[in-house]
Amino acid sequence: MAExxxxxxRLVEHGQPLQVEEVDLAGPAAGEVVVTMRYAGVNPIDRYGxxxxxxxxxxxxxxxxxEGVGTVGDRTVVVxxxxxxxxxxxxxxxxxxxxxxLLVDVPAGVELPVAASVGIAGVTAWRVVTDLxxxxxxxxxxxxxxxxxxxxxxxxxxxxxxxxxxGQTVSDAKAGGIEAQGADRVVVGGxxxxxxxxxxxxxxxxxxxxxxxxxxxxVAAMAENGRxxxxxxxxxxxGPVPLQLLYRKGLTILGYGGxxxxxxxxxxxxxxxxxxxxxxxxxxxxxxxVPLGDVNGALDRLADRSLEGKVVLDLTA
Length: 317
Prior knowledge:
Blueprint: E1 4-11, E2 19-25, E3 32-42, H1 44-51, E4 62-63, E5 67-72, E6 75-80, E7 95-99, E8 104-105, H2 112-115, H3 118-132, E9 140-143, H4 149-160, E10 164-169, H5 175-180, E11 185-188, H6 194-198, E12 205-208, H7 213-221, E13 227-230, H8 243-248, E14 252-255, H9 263-278, E15 286-291, H10 295-304, E16 310-314
Parallel strand pairs: 9-10, 9-12, 10-11, 12-13, 13-14, 15-16
Antiparallel strand pairs: 1-2, 1-4, 3-5, 3-7, 3-16, 5-6, 6-8
Helix pairs in contact: 3-4, 3-9
């Protein structure tokens, strides 16, 4: 197949703004297809890649973007995995060459910006709640960072499981959005006053994308035999944890790193998460949809934590 011309957001130097430019895509090899891209999710892992804090040994220059949705013939498909955006050119482009086994058909009724957010954020939220956290209607669930891309979806997943859900944020303005996702209660404040803000809630499960001081504060607030699922450190990569409380309460800390999963496992969870969205069990809030040319602004909004839900790139604009 001949080369394909595409407009793409390119990492040309770590720590510098991405360059949106025209590139030539090599024709697909055996087992690969060209996907005409429509939308792509913007995630913290993409920002870390741009900074050189993740996939630092990946090729430079390269196109970033690890999750998205597009078309192949008459199929509309979600794409994620296979090193896209890290070990090879990714999906922040008008077209992308991807391994065919990664394609997952989008069910009827799922809006395309939402489908573009399922591969990383949707699957992460669904798995940390239903799989690792094993949340049931008997649980009291605390979701830290509950207005963020994954946290907001995790609130929805825990609500769907029938749990009593408390969402944490540092912004009063974001409380309404967290409640709209299904939270029974919202606490506004930082790690220092988390225990006081919870006022006896005593979570049996904590969903933690923050790390830093928040992990130790959550351990102090948790009920006996609780489960803490840690999958991010956006508030800090280090923080004190009260070890005596950890073992005296019989707590379990579970780590989740979705990018370590084999592609077949990733595809299976994308299928399940899309099904949950299609049948109404899971709601993925979209903060904004911005054109590809505004990709650096989208990354800045991740950094300043001004988002409520997901920011998505419109690759057709």
